[in-house]
Amino acid sequence: MIQNLQQIKKAKSGDVDAFAALYSEIYLDLYRFALYSLRSPADAEDAVSETVIDAFTSIQKLRSEESFKAWIFKILSAKCKRRMRFIQPLLDEFSETIPDENSSENLAELIDVRNYFFQLKDEERLIISMHIFAGYTSQEIAKILHLNPNTVRSKESRALKKLSVQLSDHK
Q1: What string of DSSP letters covers 53-98?
Q2: Measured on CA atoms in the order 97, 99, 103, 109, is the torsion positive or negative?
Q3: Second label for 50, Cα 20 to 30 Å away, from 4, 34, 87, 166?
């Protein structure tokens, strides 16, 4: 988690190096979120790039330094949502692996989880990604996606149940 509020203040005042340091701290989380949402490494990279450009050009509008991570993820989630409306379904599996710290003994299970995750509807993937990778609450997700918080919770619950059933059936 980004703790350096001084760095954020510097970035707000136009310090490019401070913004670059903040970006380097959060890049992997942004990329993972976009990749799991969009299912395409190229689209994920584009969405993150667009997000960073927008964030850099408008960081002075950030009201609270403490909300930097939520703010940049809100920008990214809007970019991903917009892209999901326009991109056609891509390959069911993609060749690029998501950087992960897990050992190789868990690789088969990770591949299964990823494959089942990609079988979920776009909105279900987006809700789960926003919750897991960006740390949004159901209230925050509801506000971003213009849904009722109860709807977000039930969609997330149903999606997680689908994943759980698929994984247990697979074993």
Answers
A1: HHHHHHGGG-S-GGGHHHHHHHHHHHHHHHHHHHSPP--SS-SSPP
A2: negative
A3: 4
CA dihedral 65, 67, 68, 70 (to 10 degrees): 180
**Residues 8, 68 contacting (CB under 8 angstroms):** yes
Closest residue by Cα to residue 9 from 66, 53, 49, 54? 66
Overall average pLDDT of the 13-37 stretch: 90
Contact 122, 41 (CB under 8 A): no
47 pLDDT band, cuts 50/70/90, is very high
Q: Which two structure tokens, joined as six digits, stand for 81?
A: 């949502």
Residue 51, class by beta-carbon neighbours within 10 Å (0-12 exposed, 13-18 middle, 19+ buried)?
Answer: buried
> ∠ CA(101), CA(104), CA(105), 5° rounding?
120
**Rounded to 5 degrees, what angle do the CA atoms 110, 114, 120 make?**
150
Statement: the pTM of the whole predicted model exceeds 0.70: no
